[in-house]
Amino acid sequence: MKWRKLGRVFVPDGSRDWAKSYAIIPTAEAVGDDRLRVYYAAVDSGYNGRIGYLELDARDPTRILYDHPDPVLDIGELGCFDDSGVNPSALVETSLGTVMYYIGWQRCERVPYMLFAGSALRGPDGVFRRLSRTPVLDRTDSEPFIRSATTIVREDDGGYRCWYVSAHHWTHVGGKQYPEYIIRTTRSDDGLTWTGESTQAIEFADPSEFGFGRPWVIRENGLYKMWYSIRSRTEPYRLGYAESPDGLTWTRQDNRMILPRSDSGWDQEMVCYPCVVDAGGHRYLFYNGNSHGASGFGVAILDQE
Q1: pTM flag (> 0.85)
Q2: SS3 label, residue 290
Q3: CA torsion, points 213, 296, 57, 223, in degrees to nearest 10?
Q4: Architecture in CATH of 2-304
Q5: Alpha carbon distance 149, 133 (integer Å)
Q6: Count of CB atoms situated within 10 Å of the CB of 251
Q7: Which of 37, 238, 247, 291 is 20 to 30 Å apart from 12, CA to CA?
């Protein structure tokens, strides 16, 4: 699975108050036959995140056709789970319309942050409005720290399956505090309410690994395919890949995910937070580079399967 980098697509120029820096977790959807809309989160001068979007040429996704000037989802109400920022993670067609699942984050005192998944409905004006002030994936006794970064697939029976990031506990790496986080999966009948039991989807390959970031799942020819970020104690984020016949039991095939860090430039430090989309007769992979999106996001095209 060889991907060819097409280049960096976007990084904020700092001219907008809500988008001083970062363009994190690109989340793409095809708009007609010739356009891609890519949602991302940028931060203001206080590092509070809001969601905006670009529209790109589906045949040349490095070409920006439209740069929406305002955020389409703002930070949450003071004291809520998303009062420090929101990041996009998935778009889902439901009985209500198009719902964005997003990562709501809240700064904390004894640990750096909490991350839980929220949901918001897209209106006719393209702006998203929260379905609830509380998380759609809230904390549980077995998952009290993090439940977010969802990717969701519609199943043949009309239900939905979600894969998401969940933290075991907090640890220290290089003198800094980080969550140790895995990918789990759960199911919903309507794509709106997630109350079922969850199970672990991806296992660590060795003791150096301590986190899997932002999974992205598609179902193709009866096979589930997952791209995800791998975080370890010995190297920065890199991308991995796994396959599953049922969405529950996964086989890691990281050696097939060929998208290395560049020798220099905006993604020489890391590649992370993948999003795979088909448009314009091609399969594209959007991803973040250095410092988890501080350098913006770029795109690669699938050259060889």
Answers
A1: yes
A2: helix
A3: -10
A4: 5 Propeller (2.115)
A5: 17
A6: 10
A7: 238
